[in-house]
Every structure is written in C-alpha cells, then in structure tokens.
Amino acid sequence: MPPYIDKTTDPVKFETWRPQIELAQKRLKDSLVADFVVPQSDLPGDSVLDVSTFPAKVMSPAELKITETDASTLVLEMGSGKLSAKTVLDAFMKRATIAHQLLNCATEFLADEAYERAKLLDEYVQTYGKPIGPLHGLPMSIKEHVSIKNRVTNAGFVALLNNVTPEDATTVSILRSLGAIPFVRTNEPQSLMHQDSCNYITGVTLNGFNRKLSPSGSSGGEGALIGFKGSVMGVGTDIGGSIRSPAAFNGCYGLRPTAGRVSSRGCISAGGGQESVKSSIGPLAQHLSDIELFMSSYVGAKPWLQDATLYRIPWKKVDVDKQLTVGIMRSDGVVKPHPPILRGLEFVEKKLIEAGVKVVEWEPYKCDELWEIVSSMYFADGCAAQNKLLGASGEPIHPLTAMAFSFGKGELTVSENQELNYRRDEFRNKYQQLMIERGVDVILCPAYVGVAAELGTTSYWGYCSHWNLLDQPGLVFPTGLYQDPVVDKVDPRTEYWNLTDEKESQKYVPNVFKGAPIALQLVSQRYEDEFLLAAGKIITECLR
Amino acid sequence: MPPYIDKTTDPVKFETWRPQIELAQKRLKDSLVADFVVPQSDLPGDSVLDVSTFPAKVMSPAELKITETDASTLVLEMGSGKLSAKTVLDAFMKRATIAHQLLNCATEFLADEAYERAKLLDEYVQTYGKPIGPLHGLPMSIKEHVSIKNRVTNAGFVALLNNVTPEDATTVSILRSLGAIPFVRTNEPQSLMHQDSCNYITGVTLNGFNRKLSPSGSSGGEGALIGFKGSVMGVGTDIGGSIRSPAAFNGCYGLRPTAGRVSSRGCISAGGGQESVKSSIGPLAQHLSDIELFMSSYVGAKPWLQDATLYRIPWKKVDVDKQLTVGIMRSDGVVKPHPPILRGLEFVEKKLIEAGVKVVEWEPYKCDELWEIVSSMYFADGCAAQNKLLGASGEPIHPLTAMAFSFGKGELTVSENQELNYRRDEFRNKYQQLMIERGVDVILCPAYVGVAAELGTTSYWGYCSHWNLLDQPGLVFPTGLYQDPVVDKVDPRTEYWNLTDEKESQKYVPNVFKGAPIALQLVSQRYEDEFLLAAGKIITECLR
User: Which residues are the active-site ones (chains A, B) (predicted)?
Assistant: First the structure.
C-alpha cells in the first residue's frame, strides 16, 4: 500500500451503514431467479480455477447454443419470431446466474422487469410480424453505475446505498428504445477507479478463466460475465482502461469509443465536471460484429437529441481492405509487456503478414509524459469528490483506491490543470501527425502489461490510459491464444527501464496466469470509430 | 473603474518597452501602400462622425464596385480570369488603407507577400484556366492574434512584441491553401478580453458609422474594417461575443461557429488550456453568402487532419424552408435592450410574419445563472495567465481589462471549476430540451444590449456570452435599419430589474448612437451551424 494517509475512514460511522450493505446484499441475492440457481454442492469447489467450461455441465445444448450465438443473429431470429425473447432471456439469465455464483459479477438481476418486457416484445412480433428495433429482445448487462430507473445506483460507494436514481441513464433509455432488455447490473470497484472489481458492498469479482486472477476493472463485472458468456453484450465505461482492460482479461471484445459519441448522462460517479480526460461509455461483447451492431444502432438513434454534450456525428459505413497499414507497438517504452503479450503480438503480426497486410514497427512516443499528464488529471481536485463520498460512510479505503489516489501530483491549481490541458492537446496533435507521417492506419498494442493480474494487484494503467488522454478510440480483441506456462517463460531480464518496469516485470510468474486469454488492443485516430471497427474486422479475420 | 488593485503595472519597466512599441507602430505605418494613402488634408476631420460614405469620394466606380461585391462572385471572376487577383487586391488594399486612416483598425498590412501571391494566382489561372481553390485570390483580413508566419503576434500584450511566430496559424494555412490572400492584420484589445478594441500598441479602433462609438471587440479591427467595406471577409475569434458583437456594431455578418469546427491552433492568447468555455474562430463578412462560402470551403478542407482537437464533422448541405419556427427572445431577463434593438426585433418579426414564417415568443431561461457561470470560467485561474503577461511589460491596465478581470469569483479551485462545468452541461441539455419542447428551430435575439457602445464603455457581454457557455452557434446579421434619435426615444423606465440593468439602460442617449446599424443575432442548436446559416438565409431574404 502506497504511503497514503486515510483521512476518511471512520469505523464507527461505517458500522452504521452495515444495515444498508446487508440490504443491498439481500436485494442481490433475492434478485436471482431461483430456478436457475445451481445448488452449492453441484458447483465446482474453490480449488477449481478455470470455471469457463462449467456451463456445459448444467445447461442444455439449446441454452448453450443461444448464449454463444452473436447478438446480430439472435436479434434477427427474435424479430422474425423464430426464437422468442423469453427463451433467449431464460438462457442468458441462467448462464448469468451461474456466472454470478462462480464469479460474484452481478450487483442485481432485473428479472421481473426483463421478463415483462420480453413478453411484450414477443407479443409485438406476433402482432406486427416485425421487430421493435435493431436490438429487439436482446438481453443486455449494464455496469452498475449506469443508472437504472427507480433503483439504487451506488457507483461502488457505500454512501450511495440510498441513492435511488429516478430515471434511466440516457444510454439505457436509448438501448431500451432500440429493443434491448437490461437484465442484470454488474460489479465495479470502490470509487470506480481500479483495474479490478472489489468494493465493500458486493465484494470481489473473479475471473472465470482463472479464479485467482482479477477480471480487471472498473467494468470487471461486465468482463467476467461476458467472458463467461453469461451476457452477449453489455455496457461499460472507460476513463483509463475500464472497458478495454476487462475485455482483455476476460477474452472478449470491448470498444472505448471516442468520448462524446455515447452518452454518459446519468452515470453516477464522484467527480462530475472533470473533463480534462473524459470518461467514455461503450460496449463489451462476445463477438466483434456485435460491437458494430451496438454502435450503428445506438448512434443511428441520434443520441445527441437526448444529450447535448454529444457530437452530432452520424455512424458512417466504412470499408477497409487489406491495404491497411498496421503499426505494432511492442511496448510503450515505460513498462515492458509480459512474455505472453509479446507472443500475442508476434502471432498477430505473423498472421497479418501471411494475409498480405502491411505491418510496420510503431516506435512509442513519450508515453512516460502521457502517463504523467493523465495520472495528474484524474484527481486534479486532490480527490476531493471521492473523499467526500468515502468520508460520508467512513468505509475503509481499499488499497487499490489508495493507490489510484496517489497517482499524479495531488490537488492542482486551475492554472496547472490548464497547462496540462494544453500539453494534452499538443500530444493529440503530435500523435495524429505521427500516424499520418508514418503512414500508419491503426496501432496494434497491448491493453495491459500482462494477460491479467492477480486479484488486487493491478497498478500500471498506461497501455490503456495513454489513449484516454489522446482520446483515440481503442478496440480490444482476443487473439484466440491463451497463456501457457510452458511456452510463456519468464523473460530473463537483468536490467529494467525504471522501478515500475521492474515491479511489473516481477509480477509475471508463469504458473499464476495459466489459461488466461491473450488479448490485444487496436487504436485508430480520434473520431475514427467506424474505421477502427472495420480494421478490427480485417485483422480478426486474418486470425481465423 | 471597478475596485481592481493593479498589481502588475510598473511604469518604469513599461518605459523600457517604449522602443518596441514605437517599432511596432513604425512597422504598421511603413506597411501601408503609399499610393493608397489619402493625404491628411483630404480626410474628413475628427468632427465628422459617419465616415462610411467617404470612400466614394476617393475611389473609382470600379474600385467601389469590387469592394462591395460578394466574395463568391469575386472568386468566380478571378478564377475565370475575368478579374485579376491583382485588381481585386488593389481595390481592397486601397479601401482598407482608408479605413485604417479613419478608424485605426489595422495592426499591419501584408502588401508585399499579398501582391506576390496575387501575381502567382493570376499566372495560375492564365496557365491552367482554372482557380487554385474555392477562395482563389480572395483578399482576407485576419485578426492580429491569429499567427502569421515569421511575424510578431502580440495578442494585444506589450510583452509579446518580440513574439515572432514561426508558423501560420492552422486556419491561416488552410485559407491560403484554398486560395485566399491574407492582406491585413486587424486590431484587438489589450488581453483580448474587451468588447472594444484598444491597447497600448496600436491604440483605439473606431466605428466607421459613428466615430464616437466603439467598433466593439475583441475582433473590433475586423468589424470596423469589414463594416467600412475595406475587406469582404475576415477571420475573428469569439469567447464571449468577440466576433458577433463587432459584426453587430459595424453592421456586417459574423458567425461564431460551434467550438471545434474551425481551428484555433496557432492563435496566441493568455490562458491556453482553459476549456470550460472554448474560444471559437470564424468569419465576419459583408455578405451572408460568404459566411457559407467560408465554412463550406474551410470544413471541406478537412481541417481536423491538421488539428486533432477539431471534430470530424463534414459540412452538410441543409435546405430550410419557411416552415421554420423562430423564437424571439426580446430580452434575457437580466438587462433590457435599448429601444433601437427592440425596434429591430419588431421589424424582423413583422417581416417574418408577412412572409409566412412562424414566430413565437422565447421566454428567457435563467440567463442570470448563465452569466454567473460563464463569467467565473473566463478567469478561473484568477487571471494568473493574463497578469503574468501584463506584468512582464508593466503596461498600464486598461479600465476595460480591469473590468473583465473583475468578472466572476476570482481564482477557483479545480473542484469549483468542475462544479461549474457540470452546471454548464446541465444548462446545455436544458436549452436543447427547451428548443425541442417549444418547437423552436432558431432563436432570434439581440447581440448586445444596444446598437453599440460609446468608446471604452462596453460592459455587459450577456447577449453573446450566454451562447458561448451553451456552445450554440450564433449568426449576427444587419437588419438594414439604423438608429434614429427621433424614432428611438429613451424608454421611460422608472423601475429596473437590477443594478446592471439600470446602468446599461442609462447608457442609452439617443443622439449619441445616431446612425449606428441595428443588427441582431440568430442562434441554433449546438453543432447545427449549417442549419443556422440556412435559416439565416431565409430570414434575411424576408427582410429584403
């Protein structure tokens, strides 16, 4: 734990919040659909780390098939009446329930309202012979701090356990209007500012590929759930990697769109009005095509009419062919990635070259400065907003909260903050110029220093947060490879670039990360979300 | 002068800057084209207030015709070889020189490079039989703080008199690439933060319709020059009305686009990185069609490839018909406009109704809060950036600088600034929602409390700055009416809404404002710049 003086913890006050915490836990427990709960005795024991194949033991082939089908297909089948929304909801509700039993990834199931909505949607198809919208009947998981109407939204803060949000977040409202059915809310860390998912309300979320590992965060509940195929598509948020890192740790797809294309209105957090580095909201999904489905449907609904802070940029159709030039960034020059990540990069590079895609080296550019700037922006108010919320309940400060709060330079003056904004914009211009000069269309890079982290140990955010600072959209995709202790041996380094590099390097113990998916990140120029997805499609096709 | 303690003034230090000031003044004087300078004895005396008709006495009919023709036509004629770029440049250089002699609106003429470029462009047409770009040969005026390569750019600060900018501002570079010829740089106030144009380098700029009046600011040199028809189109910048207010005072058109559509990169000012309320850069012009020409040409050049902070929003073709609903805001509820402005609103209303355009009342919404927020954002750093630059030369603080610096709440903490950002976004949403709910497509309102202000007396920025806070684009257009002391009598008010209202009301003395153009402002939703111009076209056609 870094040298952090915890001024907000108040054990006596915290004790007065115990009933609300227990109420929230009871609400979660009661929200599970009893029929889908697997008896404790049938569940794998704690010693079983990889639980990703467990659903095959307790679900029917039909249920397994539904939960592993892409959303685009499910929507088509539900919209034509071939499959009922009820049937699809049953399958996901069951698999999500199991996911939660094994990984503690949910904060609340929304069964009653979801089944009611599924019934209405099925009746709609029966009556009109067509779907209600492009996401007709699709069960979707939603990160907890994205408000759901008339429910408590706590953002991982105990003090918000009485915070009933009277309206759906704008994005939830839009997804509903497109036909989606929010069916489960997912876990996140205390303060939302960990790449891990643990708080004093719901507890710790685990990684389904290896339960000693973190699912990352802050959209870690989403990552764990979608990685387990308990949801086909969900909504996360990302200010320093919080969509991309969980997608990577759990082997699914995740897009952090350019900030301002998807609405964060109605997302609860400390620190509203911090806009030096903006949070972005976007999809995590089992299938890449569904990321496109989400974005095209969502932007097609003109979300800017419901949120004036969004850009009025319609979703473009973009075709990308193999004439693409991919720049590979093998490290950010600050922290060297672990061996399995480097293997992943080499694997993708080889596949791209075989497929005729041009690949060049991407020399990292001053990433230490990017980290210096962005880490100072997150808590430019000296964590005043966070400390206020933590102090209101007196809850203990989680070590990862303390670590995040120690980022940067503490409280800044407005002048200092403005100076950082200015430097940020210079970097945004420089990176754009570099991509143009180097003829690089997309940058392929790690999403994290390793395949995952042990629970409670994530610390270096750089591989994602660089792009938050630059506001360049990032897509995480699984390579199809998994960490293998035999193949991915320790890098026999004797010299390190700096203390962080040394610390991160020493976290790599091959046996610890066994079975973790190897995922990578693809980054485009700012606002080129459409191009990014099209390039991602080309690249993932090369991997098949 | 408000209770402002001037800590930066240092008469002894300032004296050491005298040679640089004299050098700048000599540079300006030397930059005038001698052939076009009217002998002092032929100029109207200081007692002649309205000098707008003077050019007819010293310019040929051909020259007058060119300088009163719209840019779109001039560009077509130069691109086809019907008119040479040299001839057009001569005409504007002459009229601009006269404007400067009468109004002190320029900071530097760029004759040598402009004539060199005109020659090249004429040769290009002769060789290739086509124009080089959509602004082929167009002489353009540029506000001084928009950098010109290898020239001093001072932003109205004495301490920047050695600040040679090595590159053109991005917008200048793009305009050049489109064929435009920057031929004169125009005056602005000390610190850029007055709605007036006076500094300790170039002095005071006057209004050509009435030389006792201010041309407004901060793009007051542009306003005065274009109002005098010494330039057909120019570039201004606007963070609180600095394009729109000068356009209004000088009876021309001015557009403050949505921030982020035109590049401010390479504009010199104190306070880079202040982004709670963003400065916007845009055109002032004699003709509305040229505002459209500027925007469509400029955005068509994909300026975002040269400035990563810009949105990648192509210029849309928008057709608007008379089915438009115009909301008339007769006051902001804080300061009641002067009688000629109210007459202008009634005049336009009548014309619109006659033409079949739907007109409704726009009830102002919490404009006092808009002013409270925006005025606190401008100098959230406690004027640290400005004071640093002022202190570096020790120059005297102009009373209007002091007034601006006294706006708001002084230095804010980052938390306080973030809280204001949050409130700003709530207002942006509220205003958008109001426009949708009220069915109002565009809001017609004043651009200033009066037709103009006496020199050195502008104080209330609200009618423009409200829209800066909301980032809703604003178009100023002349109604074709002029203040008339006989018609526009004093409003016999006995009660005032507040002290500001009383103060502003008492500034209205009918004889003082004689002959000032009556101009108004049209405002659309954020990002709807194209729609705004199309609506402006409909409305100005109704006025004919």
Answer: 143, 218, 242
**Shortest CB distance from A311 goes to which of B274, B313, B413?**
B313
Whether B257 and B214 have beta carbons less than 8 Å apart is answered as no
Q: Which two tokens stand for residue B489?
A: 């009598």
Cα separation, A361 vs A348, in Å, equals 13
Residues in chain A within 8 Å Cβ distance of B312: 313, 526-528
Residue B46: count other Cβ atoms within 10 Å of its Cβ: 10
Position B320 scores a pLDDT of 85
Quickly tell me which residue has 């590049």 as its tokens.
B263
The alpha carbon of residue B244 is apart from the nearest alpha carbon of chain A, in Å, by 23
Q: Is B347 left (phi over 0), alpha (psi -120 to 50) or beta?
A: alpha
Residue B457 burial (CB count, 10 A):
16
Q: Which residues of B form the catalytic set?
A: 143, 218, 242
Q: How far is B293 from chain A (nearest CA, A)?
A: 22
Nearest by CB to residue B385, choosing from A311, A415, A421, is A415
Q: Which amino acid is at B267?
A: C
Residue B399, min C-alpha distance to chain A (Å): 24
Q: A183 near A141, Cβ under 8 Å?
A: yes
User: Would residue B3 count as lying in a domain?
Assistant: no
Q: Is residue B118 part of a domain?
A: yes
B74-83: b or e for each residue (b if 16 or more CB lie within 10 Å)? bbebbbeeeb
Task: Tell me how many helices (H) and strands (E) chain A has.
Answer: 19, 15
Buried b (16+ CB within 10 A) or exposed e, A403-413: bbbebbeebbb
What CATH number has the domain bearing residue A531? Answer: 3.90.1300.10
- Tell me the torsion sign for CA atoms B429, B431, B437, B443: negative
Per-residue pLDDT at A21 exceeds 90:
yes
The partner residue sitting opposite B414, judged by closest CB among A380, A527, A528, is A380
At residue A472, the 3 state secondary structure works out as coil
Position B433: which residue type?
Q
User: What distance in Å separates the CA atoms of residue A368 and residue A364, rounded to the nearest whole number?
Assistant: 10
Asked if A418 lies within 8 A of B381 by C-beta distance, the reply is yes
Compute the nearest-CA separation of B237 from chain A (Å): 18
Q: How confident is the model at residue B1 (pLDDT cuts 50, 70, 90)?
A: very low
Q: Which of A381, A411, A415 faces B384 most closely, judged by CB atoms?
A: A415
Chain B nearest-CA residue for A528: B312
Rounded distance between C-alpha atoms, residue A184 and residue A199, angstroms: 18
Q: Do A313 and B313 touch (CB under 8 A)?
A: yes
Phi, psi of B381 (to 5 degrees): -90, 15
In our burial notation (b when 16+ CB lie closer than 10 A, e otherwise), range A261-280 reads bbbbbbbbbbbbbbbbbebb
Count of A–B CB contacts within 8 Å? 110
Tell me the residue range of the domain where A283 lies. Answer: 11-34+56-305+320-543
Q: Total domain count for chain A?
A: 1
| SS3 assignment, position A175 | helix
pLDDT for residue B7: 80
> How many whole angstroms separate alpha carbon B493 and alpha carbon B489?
12
Mutating which of A306, A414, A525, A532 best tests the B interface, going by the most B Cβ atoms within 10 A?
Answer: A414
Q: pLDDT digits over B295-328, tens only?
A: 999 999 999 999 999 999 999 999 888 789 999 9
Using a CB–CB cut-off of 8 Å, the residues of B that contact A are: 265, 271-275, 304-305, 307-309, 311-313, 380-382, 384-385, 411-415, 417-423, 425, 428-429, 431-432, 436, 525-528
Going by pLDDT thresholds of 50, 70 and 90, the confidence category of residue A331 is very high
Q: Is B28 part of any domain?
A: no
Residue B43 covered by a domain: no
Interface test with A, best of B312, B387, B414 (most A CBs within 10 A): B414
Distance, in Å, from the CA atom of B485 to the CA atom of B307, rounded to the nearest integer, reads 48
